[in-house]
Amino acid sequence: MLGPGVGMVGSVVALSLIGLAVLLMADRTGDFDGPVALTALGIGVVLAGLGIIVSGLRGRRSGALGALAIVGILVALPVGAATTNDWVWTSGSHRRADSGTYVVDTRRSAADGFDLGFGDAVVDLTTVPLTGSTLDVPVSLGAGDLTVVVPADAAVAADVKAGVGTVRWELDGETRSVDGLGISEQTFEDEQVRNGETAQLQLHVSVGAGEIRIIEEQS
What we know:
Number of helices: 5
Radius of gyration: 19 Å
């Protein structure tokens, strides 16, 4: 069985280099302050994966694209460990954690935040005690899918940014979605905050590569 072909491999490499160039330019101009190397690696791995899928549909082996994807993932692990810790919103005592579901039930734990590496993670804030003062909750993820669940009756706002991927806001029956490369800070507010109420939860969320979903608990 034939490999993906020189054209396919060249296209993936070229697009990855273009992505890196765009990130470097955005970093220089201040439009992107995330981890450039980690984000570029994430883009390269995603492009290689898409190339593998297209090659499979054409009846070809992954070949060099598979090797590029594996190398990218292996390189991303130490790069993520070195850079993710620096890409946070506040100077609080962020807890480093693995992927999984985290149920937060104290204000102090929520304020400490989460510094996650790679994988799929759910941060459940539905049992956090809420008051009239704003509780800032920082959450960062190197690469993967992150879901933040908030109480249905809470006043919520969020500042969100991502290196590459999708941001989805699903509160009050409203769905907003932003996707692309180098997603700069996006501000989301629920209906209560837009109507002038003080946010009870202020989320500060960042992801290197992947999807961010902010949703409310289901009754």
